[in-house]
Amino acid sequence: TGSRGQSLDPDVPDGVPETVETQYWREWETIDADSPPLDYSATAGAVLDRLPVEFSSEDDPWMREHALMVKRGLDDLGIAVELNDRPLNQLYAQSWATKGLEAVISMSTHGPDPQRGLDPNPLLMRRTEGSLSNYDNYYHPKLQELLTEQAQTTDRAEREELVARAQEIFAEDVGALITLFPNIVTAVNRDRWAGYVETPGNGPTMDSFVWTEVNLQPETDNRTYVKGVSTSMNSLNLPWAAGGAEAKRLTFIYDGLFDATPDLDVVPALATGGGFVGETTVELELREGVEWHDGEAFTAEDVKFTVEIYQEYTSSSQVPFYEPIDSVEVLGDHEVRFNLTNPDASFMTQRVVRSVILPKHRWEDIDNPSQHNPDKPVGTGPFEFDTWEQGTRFAASRNDGHWMFDDDWRADALGDQAERGPGIERVIWINVSNVDALIGSLQSGAIDAIGTNLSTLQAERAANADGIEQVSAGSYAPLDAKLMFSCPLVRDKEFRIALSKAVDSQGFVEDFLQGEATVPAGENPISPLTQWHNPDTTDYEVDVEEARTILEQAGYTWDGDGNLRYPNGEAWGAFVERIQPENTYKRRDELEQPDFS
Amino acid sequence: MTKFQRFLLKRLAISVLLTLIAVSVIFVVLRLLPGSPFEALVTSGNLNQEQIAEIRAMYGLDEPIWKQYVNYLTSLLTFQFGYSILRSQPVWAVLEPRLINSLILLVPALVTTAILSSLVGMYAGWNRGSRLEKFSIVSTTLLRSTPVFITAIFFIIVFAYNLEIVPALGMRSIRATPEGYLDTFVSLDFLHHYLLPFTVAVLYYSGDFLLLARNGVVEKRGSEFLKLHRAKGLTEMQQLARAGRNSMLPILTYFTLRLGMIFQGLILLEVVFSWPGIGRELVLAIQQQDYPLVQAAVFIMALAVILANLLADVLYAYFDPTVSTGGGGSA
Amino acid sequence: MTLLEVDNLKVTYETDDEPVHAVNDVSFTIDEGVNYGLAGESGSGKSTVAEALLGLLPGNGTVERGTIGFDGKDLTALSEAERRDILWEDIAYIPQSAMDSLDPVMSTGDQIAQAIHTHRNVTDSKARDRVRELFEIVGLDPDRIDDYPHEFSGGMRQRVTIAMALALEPDLIIADEPTTGLDVIVQDKIIDKILEIQERMDSSLLLITHEIGVIAETCDELSILYGGKVMEQGSVDNVLVNPTNPYTMGLKNSFPEIDEGEDPVAIPGSPPNLNGEPTACVFEDRCPFATEECGASHPDPVDLPNRNHRSACHRVKEAAQLRQAADDPETWDIPDDGDDDSDRGEVILETDNLEKHYEQSQPLLDKVRGEETDYVKAVDGVSLSVRRSEVLGIAGESGCGKSTLGETMALLEEPTGGELTFDGEPYEYYQDGNVQEFRRKVQIVFQDPFDSLNPRQTVRKLVGEPLTIHDYRTDEKERAIVETLEKVGLTPAEEYLDQYPHELSGGQRQRVAVAKALVLDPDFLICDEPASMLDVSLKVNLLNLLRGLADTEDIGIVYISHDLASLMQVSDRLGIMYLGRIIEEGEVDRIATRPKHPYTASLLSAAPEKDPTVDRTRVLLEGEPPDPVDLPSGCAFAPRCPKAEDSCWEAEPAIDEAGDDSHRAACYLPEDGDGTAPTDTATADDEFPTSANTDSVGD
Amino acid sequence: MSTDTKQKGAMYSRIDELWTTVRDQFVFLRRDPLAFGGMIVVATFVFLGLFGPFLAPHDPIEHTVRGGDGSVLRLTAPSAEAFFGTTSYGKDVLSQFLAGARPTLIVGLFGGLGTGALGFTVGVVSGYYGGWVDELLMRLTDLTFSLPFMPMALLLLTFMTPNIWLITAIIAAFLWKMPARVVRSEVLSVRERTFVKSARASGASDLRTMLYHVAPNVLPIGFLYTAYGVAWAIAAQASLAFLGFGDPTMTSWGRMLRQVFASGNMRVAWWWVLPPAIGIAAITTSVFLIGRAYEEVINPEIQTDQ
Ligand SMILES: Nc1ncnc2c1ncn2[C@@H]1O[C@H](COP(=O)(O)OP(=O)(O)OP(=O)(O)O)[C@@H](O)[C@H]1O
Ligand SMILES: Nc1ncnc2c1ncn2[C@@H]1O[C@H](COP(=O)(O)OP(=O)(O)OP(=O)(O)O)[C@@H](O)[C@H]1O
Ligand SMILES: [Mg+2]
Ligand SMILES: [Mg+2]
Predict the structure, then answer these.
(1) Are C570 and C263 in contact (CB under 8 A)?
(2) Which parts pass through the membrane (chain D) (predicted)?
(3) Per-residue pLDDT tens for C638-662?
């Protein structure tokens, strides 16, 4: 705060306030507070205060560079920026309470959960009123309507249409800055193994999918595949894990009802078919002849038991799966029915995929499953648990009878990427705490692949050795620079568009990521990698001059030092009009406001 | 009841009180922390309000604060550290191996350095003004005042990266799969990994012991009783031994105190060397906001200090023939 | 036969500034079986000589030249190993401060055994037997050989060092001030013991002390050192009876003696600067007889004809005249104000049954249990009165409660019982919000001149502070300060105003301390051993100053000391204290000549005589004062009293048990005294049979 | 009028005195080559702390070093474009080094002063009053001793946004115990000295005695521990920053090291490691060397001979 630059004397039309405060513009049911934690008010003719922009450099090593890029864009518009590099946990802590963000712009990455690639809901539904994750207080009546509708539309084609429209609206409205989808970069040893499967958001080596591990074929006698990782599993209790490495790594032991291919197609797993039979009823056929690793047979009872125990003890990592389920009925040994609480479009595309089914005979006598750490987790998955030593290593060995090891089945699911052969015997995850050491181990042959994200420089360095190659895969998890919509400035669509045109993501990707990222056309959070992507969204091309013209036309001015000022006089009246709740998604001409330049 | 016993009782009471207060402070600080380990889940949009509340209830976070406090106290003081939120395991099961890894690194290092540096320090103090003295003072001042992680980084760069004599990180080579403690710690591989952090720890601590021993001997060197020893015809070495024996007590006390601070002192060392010890685990747990684990780790560290303080006082009172055990010889 | 021959010994100390020439061309010889004394003021180089002999000089000290012949060998030319063989085997050492000379973490017995093992190849048990034997010889309980030094009292520790010195029956024992810091009574006992044993073993003794009296009583020959030079040497009889060197005369003059009528006379000035080699006579600037010749060179020692006597003085031929002149204080620039027993004024301070009991710290547990607290009865029912213009002396052994009494009278400690009246008001009146008034009127001067001044304040601040505190004469502060400084003899005062304590000598510091006390024009002054750390001549100066103050300023003074001789000199009346009580009180002259209490008698008899021709009978007291916590019933002195009878154990005698108004004593069996103590007291002491030769010093 | 000139005179003599003290210190330090070297390092460091950010050729964070062809120079060894090389995102190491001196200086100076001042006050009060005040304060130091510094600091910094003043405060809050204990034991012995009793005897109040008689005599040791406090604070700050709990908005030496370490470039980018590492090591060591030289003078027991 305090005055910067030369403000004009406020000159306001009748009935228009001189200053507009930061405030909640709607009655948010989910918000329990009088005023937003951010205070960035607008005053007629005043030079803009330093604009708070927050990020966490712990988020991604290049995050600060990204923030600097945004800062440069704002600088070009004449807006001074206050960069706030916050500890990651504090950045996230804001979302614990839904009061809203503490900065005008707040950037963070989304994790590449497979769920996010399979269904548009995780990334889109947070833009609706009522979502706990809507901490930027964004609201667009049309979008609200579309999204609510698509969430209940179980017809695929119809839903795709709705989702496409939603993307258009969001991009056109500049609901956030969707700057880029960073690639997953890593390095692997190709002399020893063939058949790495590139899965979006996961690359060939991370743990969200098992494709690489079931598809790999040895080029030497050694059939043990060693993956170096930098985060360790914390427990052997998958369903009640807090979402760390164990939630992913342990899925190697278990199967879901369905699975997703590298093209993000849904394929059968423990369920072989089925689907909606009514608005809120889903019936599934289960795979026959499947055995738990301890030899017991898998039946529909296990599925029913799993859902019920999850519900009773609130399994945190399986919430997306069981959340809409009201009850489960066993229709036969290998047939179940789910009764849902509401119609849920994503049930078959997202929720049942990679859901973890537990063996009833193992878990039914456990007192408190959330505090249970099985000695030896038993699942039906492609790998059987071997050993685990916390912080050091985790080993699992091939479950030979598993369908994924069937070369033909894999050929169907993986297409070109499928390899035939004896496959691997064991997977071992080894914890190497430091990237330097990871690279060293890969080069020395102590490990076969690196299971974490590398920077391009690091990957290049690793690839210096024989047989080591840098690999990268695209991701569907965007970097989301959220705009706080309680702030008057952000509510001005003219400003948002100018901002979108001032931020040069592509330049950033070239300079600092060496091209290892995808820059979306416009502010569309749904990546081209997914099946829900709409390529025809509005793209406000980068052009600083034009951005400044837009601002000028909207009535903004600059002082002698080039500092941006809020509109004054008539233009101020127009500004105040634009930021009213019913107008925030409308441009100047839609409101029939003149050109103030 | 002898005087000594009475003194012991008093010190014990103080220690218990201190433990209680320290533990309470830890509790307060932890409760002040915003957020929780479930944040990541919430941010991902997977949980609704109700489910969050259920999870909180599961870990007792919904109870009134005083009740949480009472539960916390009773469990800590009975060494039931509870369940790690992230690890779904008893905290002790997580910490025990870490604790052992830390001890295996630090105790031998401390003992070695205490013996070696004290001897060198005594010798240096005896030969005051000699080159050896000057050199040992400069080098140990350097080693003890430089933050340990910097020394460690230098050593890693020189010995691991450039000379490639020893590995830079970890406790054993990454593909090793030892069974049980004996197998883990009694192997060439372990020794190989042990060398660098051990050396750095030894060097880091050497300064205090060396200076303490040196100052002690310098102080004693001009003393009357040594003059009498000299007059009796004792050789230089015998005199040095007497001077050394007379400066033992502060060294012993300091050793005990250091022993108590051992875990906290070398958090940085463990982080730099990726040594899977309790210090590194604590840093991780703090980052992951795993309350029960943090609580237990900090508690163990505090307890170690308190016990070491107690031990130091008792040893002091026990070994110093001149100390009066009547009063609070603590400060 | 000559045992030790020191020839032209010169020792310097290297320091950060200039070197210190501590010993300059000192020569002397000690024959077998002879007791040799080395005397001189502090800093004269006595210890340095001893350390040079033993090769124990600190790192910065070097023997520049000279030889030390011992048994035909030159000690300065020996290798380390050769010297180690001689040490203790042939030359043993009793160090200056026994308190710190024993290794605190080794049992006393082991320390002695260590000396034996180092030189003799004997078994452990043999060595232990010898240690027990030695303990017995020096009068310690042989069962305590496994005790650590801190478990012994100062006097006992000194005995341990003596036992150690005797362990190998050496040819020569060097004792460096073996009794400094000890009580008269203990000192007397130790000296007696050394002599007795040394006589038995027929070894030689080099005794270093600044107490001429001790040497007079114990030695055959002596050297007087000053500024690192031998001023005079020869047989004790010759040197001390007929000194030929002005320094010796001055030194002798400045020792007060109990039964001497004359006041002692101090040598003015201060010891020489040793930062350069002496070019003039080292004593020149203080010597009243100095001539031009004296400024030109330091005189060589001259053998006086026909006698075992040498003196280093240019005017040695005029010795007899000088001696005469030296007896007159005016020679030393000190006006002889004669004995002006001024009239004493009205009573200013009075105590009645004053008590100060310290509660012994007790563990909480015992307090809860309601166990009775133990008390240290440091002051236990003292009744005294002091008048204006009067000096009341308080004497007693260490730990008898003198300081506590002083501090209680100054209300620095709260009395736990009894009455204290000052200036007509009871002490409660002052405690009730009138402390400042009391603090202004009553001042106290402490024992340690080196420690009683804040090292970080200048003299101006130091002396001015009480004025600031009491807002007294603040408008003319500077004048008040100057006046007071001149009153205590620091002239010209301006020179001292901006000096810090460390720039002052001990005597000057103590004067500043007195000035600090006087600047408020007090009515009452308490002096707690103000002179005990000072050199003889400084001590005399201070005593004269205080005496003068009492006479001219009309203030009452309490003077506390364990040094009876100086008390006799300064006081009008004397109180003798024992275990918190006054056991005898009265006019100085009467107590000095006719002590009534046996304790007073033994105190008096313990003081050494500086005249070697006078014989003294020792009254050796058995044991040490009892623990003030568990006082025996009855007379507190009974356990040590040579005359104690059953009645003494029954009830405690009151102070007016014996004597009259001007001389009272708390004793059922007062000495009938006519000057000398009864001889039977000595034989009553069975542990220390009077040795045959106590009184046969020299011939 | 005369009082006026007098006061002036007093002032001059005081300034003179001060100057002499300073000169004496300098002369004293000159004599100990180690301490003298340390002093030069400290002076350089203070200079850097004050002017480093202005000397830096570029903005340490915002400026990206680019090569001739306009591409970002990432992780390049020292060259004409960047004398100390660049970081993995093309930042100028020299500029970061220069700018990083300031937070190090701020925390060191104020952390040290805070530590010294707090410890000194507690030590003096506790030692002087004794009794329950002493018992209370000493138990408090025991408590801060038993609350391990590193973990507690980490905890506090996770829930308060780390900024340089907060870090300074935390450091001072945990480190004061060291000087407090030493000063206290020193006061215990000063308190027993006769001039303190003597001050009381002449009617000085407790406050006066404490201020004029006790405190000045333990001041040297207080100063010494303030100096050590500076070194501790610098080391502590660097350690916290290295663990990722430093002030994220400021480039500090500790944070630079964190970035090399965390980015896994330690093996290659020696030019990025050495400046901050040597900077920290040099400054902490220097302070200790100077402190030690003083200790030899202050501690009469070590002084015994020579
Ligand atoms: N280690 C030393 N370094 C420098 N000067 C010293 C040293 N030891 C003694 N001196 C000086 O040498 C002179 C003689 O000292 P010495 O101790 O021999 O005197 P002394 O006669 O034994 O005195 P005292 O009666 O006080 O024991 C003194 O001026 C003293 O200050
Ligand atoms: N503060 C105190 N608490 C407990 N006991 C004390 C205290 N001060 C003195 N005493 C005890 O009181 C007794 C008398 O001590 P005081 O200091 O008055 O003796 P003194 O005659 O002055 O001895 P010295 O000649 O050694 O100075 C001693 O036994 C001493 O231990
Ligand atoms: Mg001496
Ligand atoms: Mg006394």
Answers:
(1) no
(2) 34-56, 105-129, 149-176, 218-245, 269-290
(3) 878 877 788 888 888 887 777 777 7
Q: What is the Cα–Cα distance from D248 to D244, expressed in whole angstroms?
A: 8
Q: Which atom of ligand 2 sits closest to the CA of residue C407?
A: 18
H/E segment holding residue B5: helix B3-32
Query: Average pLDDT, stretch A457-469?
Result: 89
Q: What is the pLDDT of residues C15-50, one digit of tens each?
A: 777 888 999 999 999 998 889 999 988 888 898 999
- Cα D99 to Cα A174, A560, D104, distances in angstroms: 38, 30, 10
DSSP C622: P
**Cβ contact C481:C464 at 8 Å:** yes
Q: Do chains C and A touch (3 or more CB pairs under 8 A)?
A: no
Q: Hey, are the CB atoms on D158 and A457 less than 8 Å from each other?
A: no
Rounded Cα distance between D165 and D171, Å, is 10
- Angular region, C578: left φ>0, alpha ψ -120 to 50, beta rest: beta
Tell me, yes or no, whether C64 lies in a domain. Answer: yes
C59 vs C76: CA distance, rounded Å = 15
Cα–Cα distance measured from residue D168 to residue D164, given in angstroms and rounded to the nearest whole number: 6
pLDDT at B178 over 80: no
DSSP-derived letter for residue D209 is I
Which of C153, C184, C394, C404 best tests ligand 2's pocket when mutated (most atoms within 8 Å of CB)? C404
Query: Which residues approach ligand 1 with their CB closer than 6 A?
Result: C 13, 15, 20, 22, 40, 42-48, 58, 60-61, 210, 274; D 305
Q: Is A78 strand, coil or helix?
A: coil
C413-445 residue pLDDT tens: 889 988 999 888 898 888 888 888 899 899 998
The finding on whether C228 has its CB within 6 A of some atom of ligand 2 is no
- Measure the CA–CA gap between A337 and A277, rounded to whole angstroms: 9
Taken in order of first residue, the domains within chain B and their CATH numbers are: 8-78 (no CATH), 91-323 (1.10.3720.10)
Q: Is the CB of C408 under 6 A from ligand 2?
A: no
Is this complex's ipTM strictly greater than 0.95? no
Contact A398, A382 (CB under 8 A): yes
User: What does the pLDDT look like over B179-193, one tens digit per residue?
Assistant: 777 777 778 888 888
CA distance B195 to B112: 13
Tell me how far apart the alpha carbons of residues D112 and A355 are, in angstroms, rounded to a whole number. 56
> Cα of C585 to ligand 2 centre, how many Å?
21
Task: Report CA(B300)–ligand 4 centroid distance (Å).
Answer: 50
Both C190 and C271 in one domain: the answer is yes
Alpha-carbon separation of residue C354 from A196, A440, C307, C377, C624 (angstroms) = 101, 87, 58, 11, 25
C60, C455, C465 ranked by CB distance to D202: nearest = C465
Asked whether residue C251 falls in the same domain as residue C176, the answer is: yes
pLDDT above 80 for B95? yes
- Which CATH number fits the domain that encloses residue D124? 1.10.3720.10
In a domain, D27, yes or no: no
* B30 close to A (CB below 8 A): no
For C312, other C-beta atoms within 10 Å of its C-beta total 24
- Nearest chain C residue (CA) to D218: C456
CA–CA distance, A109 with A123 (Å, rounded to integer): 12
Span from the CA of C41 to the centroid of ligand 2 (angstroms): 29
Q: Report which ligand 1 atom has the smallest distance to the Cα of C45.
A: 18
pTM confidence score: 0.81
Quick one: C232 and C373 in the same domain? no
Asked if residue A430 lies in contact with residue A232, where contact means CB atoms within 8 angstroms, the answer is no
Ligand 3 centre distance from Cα of residue C46 (Å): 6
Cβ proximity of B252 and B222 under 8 Å:
no
pLDDT digits (tens, 9 = 90+) for D148-189: 888 888 888 877 778 889 999 999 998 888 888 888 888 888
- Residue C443 contacts residue D202 (beta carbons within 8 Å): yes
Q: Which residues pair with A511 in a beta bridge?
A: none
